[in-house]
Write a structure and sequence with these properties.
The chain is α/β, with parallel strands linked by helices. It is built from 6 helices and 5 strands. α4 crosses α6 and α5 packs across α6.
Length: 203
């Protein structure tokens, strides 16, 4: 069916006058807090990325998985990044978390260390973003404050408190303990958010 030039001009004018629909959303809306039941804590590092998956439940959170993605010192960077990505994809597929929590700020002794840490963090977050998870950041001091009650607590103190809070039979490895602590700290933030209007920081 054909249209006349006049009809075409009328259609173009109507389209120009019509309000634009919000088809291109810059940032997707976060899921309601109540929908987050399985949380992934992530402590990225090229040679030892810690992860921990926690399900919110009563009387205490349930640990679904935790571990360290270890890469030998003689592996090239690209091989380490590939292993980090592949392992995280398997974790996401098995446990189906809806939110990921990472450290918001990290300190490096030199530029090279910062670049390497950034590579690991980027590889991990790319996989998380592809899976559509909401991503939250928490500063290290705030995690320690939430878990131990002291912002400058040592790693061992954090690991012992994580073990106690999750009723783990053994002390988790350092990197995995940090990841579990991130998940637990964010779970506390979600609980507070149910009773306040404080906006969570996301990336």
């Amino acid at each position: 069916m054909g249209i006349t030039p006049q009809q075409l001009r009328q259609m173009e004018q109507r389209l120009q006058r019509a309000p634009r629909r919000a088809t291109a959303v810059v940032e997707p809306a976060l899921r309601p807090v109540s929908n987050h039941q399985v949380l992934l804590g992530l402590d990225p590092s090229l040679r030892g990325t810690g992860y921990g998956v926690v399900r919110l439940s009563e009387p205490f959170p349930q640990t679904l998985a935790h571990g360290t993605i270890s890469c030998p010192a003689n592996w090239e960077h690209s091989r380490c990044l590939a292993k980090i990505a592949a392992t995280l994809r398997d974790v996401l597929k098995e446990h189906r978390p809806t939110v990921c929590v990472v450290e918001g700020i990290f300190f490096a002794q030199n530029l090279r260390t910062a670049i390497v840490m950034g590579e690991a963090r980027g590889a991990a977050l790319c996989v998380i973003a592809e899976a559509g998870l909401d991503i939250f950041e928490i500063a290290t001091r705030k995690v320690k404050q939430a878990i131990v009650g002291y912002g400058a607590a040592q790693k061992l103190a954090v690991a012992k408190m994580v073990q106690r809070m999750l009723r783990l039979p053994e002390l988790p490895a350092a990197d995995a303990a940090d990841a579990l602590a991130l998940a637990l700290a964010q779970a506390q933030n979600f609980e507070r958010s149910r009773f306040s209007l404080t906006k969570q920081k996301t990336i």
